[in-house]
Amino acid sequence: MRGPVFWSALAAIVLAVTTVWAGDTGRIYGKIHTVDGDVLEGLIRWDRNEASWVDVLDGSKEREDSDRNRKESLRSERRRSTVRFFGLDLGENSDWSWANMAQSGIRFGHLRSLEVTDDDRVTAMLKSGREVELFNGSTDIGSSIREIIIEDGSQGEMELTWDDIELVEFAETPAALESSFGNRLYGTLTTRRGESFTGYVCWDMDEVFTSDVLEGDEDRRSRKIAFSKIASIERYSSSGAQVRLKSGDEVLLRNTNDVDSGNRGIVISDLGLGQVIVQWDEFETLVFEALPAGLSYRDFDGGRPLEGTVFTEDGEELKGKIRWDDDEEYTWEILDGEYRDIQFDIELGLVQKIEKTARGDCEVTLWDGRSFRLAGSNDVDEDNKGIVVTDDRDETTYLDWEEFERVEFTKP
């Protein structure tokens, strides 16, 4: 538990919550066209836990057909045989395989529009003009989405289902808008090993606003506390959390997934990184802070091709456009990895360098100077499907993971 000195310092830095206009804090805004022909316009809360331009729309995408032969040559020793499953031939020698799809994601700020094309599929139009087909994104895409809420200026708060939506057009958030949900949660999370991450907060993969509530039992009594009243949350044990209120009172809550090991993860969305998801066993403290102004839809460019120099184990240098893991080739795309129960989803345009280590994982350095040693994903370990470099003469080189040493990206 923290001592008196800590709490005195905390009281000095925690500011009272004041109204901050939505246009200054990067709230998602746009028009939703429904299948019935209605057009609703306002602030958007997507699948409960995405509400700001920095938040990630999760999905999967299909690999381009032209990559299949490449993948075969890069991973021939790991090729799987074809099997029959519910009438489908699955495997890398079949017409369809798990290897033909890739996990993907994109921050909402890069999107110009989303067009619903099927029960579990959308066409995402980026600001760059590029179209990307996304599908099956956890609960972000498809009929399993938990809810989509738009705060329409004339109609009020409207809750929609996936089947209601035809098209979403995103736009710059007007400056003088106030949300009925209150302010977006923001703060600094510290892990049990001392790492700190600051940004927009999503608690338990669900609560993102000051009007949302933290639930738990206190001495066998059920408590619901609005996040607007909370100064900090500290992990007490696997089954409870110490909650310090802005009034100075402290409450020990237990026995709900908000405050015990059933917590689905605490997400910190950071403009200079992407997002991290911290599990309960690694979580130590979250201190809420005043919401900063200045985040804008204009801070996102829709992405551009990845470029840089790839260095091989043999000392060769290959410069040009880069396709990472035979899949990610734009700055908006996501590099996945794990470190000590922390999941990293890093926007590739924010990465300065990726270097393979002797242990087989990767040291990832960001343009802001931070670096993280990541593993646990084919983006950053021996399951990587290859690095493809196309030079200015349109000549292409394909590197297997064993040949790769490091990549230094050109700053976007």
Describe the structure.
The protein is mainly beta and 412 residues long. The protein folds into four domains: 22-62 and 102-170, no CATH class; 66-100, no CATH class; 180-288, no CATH class; 304-409, no CATH class. Helices cover 4% and strands 44% of the residues. The protein contains two helices and 32 strands. The protein has helices at residues 4-13, 68-74, and strands at 29-34, 39-46, 56-62, 83-85, 88-90, 101-107, 111-118, 121-126, 131-135, 148-152, 156-160, 165-170, 186-191, 196-202, 213-218, 221-226, 230-237, 240-245, 250-254, 266-270, 274-278, 283-288, 307-312, 317-323, 334-339, 342-347, 351-356, 362-366, 371-374, 387-390, 396-399, 404-409. Strands 19-18-17-22-13-14-20-21-26-25 form a ten-stranded antiparallel sheet, with no helix packed on it. Strands 9-8-7-12-1-2-10-11 form an eight-stranded antiparallel sheet, with no helix packed on it. It has an eight-stranded antiparallel sheet with strand order 29-28-27-32-23-24-30-31, with no helix packed on it. Strand 1 and strand 2 (39-46) form a beta hairpin. Residues 4-19 and 65-98 have low confidence and may be disordered.
